[in-house]
Amino acid sequence: MVMSKSSIGIIGTGSYLPEKILSNSDLEKMVDTSDEWITKRTGISNRRILDDDMPAYKMGIAAANNALENAGVKAEEIDAIILTTNSPDYLTPSSACLIQGEIGAVNAIAFDMNAACTGFIYALEIAQSFISTGKYKKVMVISCEGMSRAIDWTDRNTCVLFGDAAGAVILSEVEEGYGILSTCLGSVGEKGKCITLPCSFSSEEDKAIRNGGEKYLWMDGTEVFKFAVGAMADASKKAIDEIGITFDDIHMVFPHQANTRIIDGAAKRMKIPEEKVYSNIAETGNISSASIPLGLDLSNKRGILKKGDNLVLVGFGGGLTWGASVIKWCL
Ligand code: UT7
Asked: Which residue's CA is the nearest one to ligand 1's atom 41?
């Protein structure tokens, strides 16, 4: 049976933030930067950092268990686990499989996917497609990012920006008219080298492509910034146009948290007032694909989201990639 696209939605959320806080004043002691520069140029004050001896996927376990509890679903009821990351512990085994084994999701298929910071939106589309086949009833999406391990802590251009966290959601069929109403995704591969993160067996040429970029994240911040503002506004517009609503019908926007100036610039283009735009970047920094599900979970647990609210989830990131989903909240 093929179900209507609009009847698949989020039935539970979870997240995990490491306890250790790295503040702007801590960073002042590590690189040539200042609290004033970071706050003014990015909006970030603190970020959370994983303990050295904790594998990143363990954050995903905590977020997954948290989402199962929130949804009132048992691990063995999950049919698929899709994990988004660009900072995994291993290329194989996937973080999804490691988590599947440890939480006892014995009936789930499990795999990782990478669309960088847009990963969560891409994964929602995959989860919705899986469920719409009728073969998978309950799908868990986990976004798990140990970005502190991918950063050169001597590079002030990048090390002030990122943090670690995981977020998770469970999707299934929901009441008709609720759930994911539309999703628009895109990739702009010709701009791919704007953000690079080589892996251990990249060619020597690829490893040497950027100064100091042999094993760490490198980016052309200005290029990414220019792309991001337009991409987030355009993606959101495409997703709302597809279902014939306007920004006035939107209760809340959850943008990828990369830089307050990017969020403000995109919101301005969408003519969305500040109070409708979710932001926690001051306390988390950029946690890549985990930023949207973390924001959703914190808002869900704080009772900010009401059943029937129309939400826009919108992101951009490495690849380059972009994507937006419109969701009618059903919890
Ligand atoms: O998740 C997706 C991935 N990434 C992003 O979304 C990042 C998008 N880009 C950005 O958020 C911004 O471009 C940055 C925050 C990365 C940089 O901000 P900016 O306003 O574009 O600064 P800039 O790169 O143009 O640099 C301005 C100045 C430079 O000095 P000079 O050349 O003018 O003397 C930099 O060297 O700021 C300097 N600078 C810093 N100064 C103090 C760069 N990083 C720092 C720093 N502290 N941490």
From this structure: 33
